[in-house]
Design a protein that fits this description.
The termini are far apart. With 241 residues, the chain is mainly alpha-helical. The strands form 3 sheets. It has a 3-stranded antiparallel beta sheet. The chain has 10 helices and 8 strands. It binds a DNA duplex (20 and 20 nucleotides) through residues 3-5, 7-9, 42-47, 49-50, 52-53, 56-57, 61, 119-120, 133-135, 137-138, 141-142, 144-145, 155, 157-159.
Length: 241
DNA sequence: GGCACAAGTCTAGCCAAGAT
DNA sequence: ATCTTGGCTAGACTTGTGCC
């Protein structure tokens, strides 16, 4: 059975709190700071413990092969607009949690076909992927509640979601590179076409266009053929703007 | 190896509000 | 009145890690 993991509503300010402390405090200090910080939002100790683990996994204890981009994002965080900062959390959450990524991908595909999406439809698809269990319902609800809190979708009535009137503009090359990484993670590859990046359902709340000039020349190499332009990644080389 | 502990994951269930 | 949905929680199970 595939693990789910993401089972609590996570708020943007909670993710911001950890992000702003990276590189400034020790691991133990971060754990106690976050626990104290979360007391304001979550009273139940068990739920708080769950949310704590999720938030730390997204920004602090990221997988080894994501530490390069995480550190790059932390040092360039201040260059992003407030809307882009929300998108940054979106992308990091998709890296940390395949469940989150698969759900927003499916959600994005649905929003291409219709203005409204019912949570029932999404729960059915997630149960298809992760098994028919209560756990999947809880987690799907947690993803909806989180991205609603982050302002990427609106709930117009119980169980029915719509996109906001305005999509989030993504101009920063910092974020665009992260989006390429997210898509490569999703597809489990080191090579994607420009067309795939610019049409991925995972980024449905974003208004963006990625061109080769947005990508760090050392980390990404560009391969052109007759039909498309491909981005290939060298995972060992760090980022630069 | 065996143990204790922490972190991560999960089941089962409660309650409130709104829809049917 | 009953069902559905969203939000929340207690506590159990599993896995990883450090120490003896």
């Amino acid at each position: 059975m595939k693990p789910v993991g993401f089972d609590q509503k996570i708020q943007l300010h909670q993710l911001d709190f950890v992000l702003k402390n990276i590189g400034k405090v020790s691991n133990n200090e971060m754990h106690s700071l976050l626990d104290h910080y979360l007391l304001n939002d979550i009273q139940g100790p068990a739920s708080r413990r769950c949310a704590h683990a999720i938030i730390m996994k997204i920004w602090w204890s990221v997988e080894q092969h994501h530490t390069l981009i995480r550190d790059y994002l932390v040092s360039n965080y201040s260059l992003l607009s407030s809307q882009e900062k929300g998108s940054l959390h979106w992308c990091m959450t998709t890296l940390a949690y395949p469940f989150f990524r698969e759900q927003v991908n499916y959600l994005g595909k649905n929003f291409r076909m219709a203005d409204e999406v019912r949570s029932k439809t999404v729960v059915a698809e997630m149960k298809n992927l992760y098994g028919d269990r209560r756990r999947v319902e809880v987690a799907t609800g947690a993803v909806f509640a989180s991205i609603k809190n982050w302002g990427f979708i609106n709930m117009i009535k119980p169980g029915v979601y719509m996109l906001p009137n305005e999509k989030v503009n993504i101009d920063s090359p910092i974020l665009k590179q992260l989006m390429v990484e997210v898509l490569m993670e999703h597809l489990q590859t080191d090579s994607v076409s420009l067309e795939m990046v610019n049409n991925s359902a995972i980024f449905f709340p974003f208004n963006y266009h990625i061109s080769i000039g947005d990508l760090a020349q050392d980390r990404f190499s560009i391969v052109r053929n007759i039909r498309d332009t491909f981005i290939e990644r060298n995972p060992k080389i760090p980022y630069s703007v």
